[in-house]
Specification:
The structure is a single chain. The chain is of the alpha+beta class and about 45 residues long. Strand 1 and strand 2 form a beta hairpin. The chain has one domain. A two-stranded antiparallel sheet has the order 1-2. The protein contains one helix and two strands. This is Transcriptional regulator.
Length: about 45
Amino acid sequence: MIKARKEATRVFYYLALQDSGIENVARLFADILQILRNAPDKSGED
């Protein structure tokens, strides 16, 4: 997911969208949000 390129003495890091798991991670968090939105409130507050 993270790639690097070196220019002289500097190293630049960037997200590589091709062949990465970024879409899978985004889908995971979207699924987690959906589960949390549909979960019953267990806080005990009415």
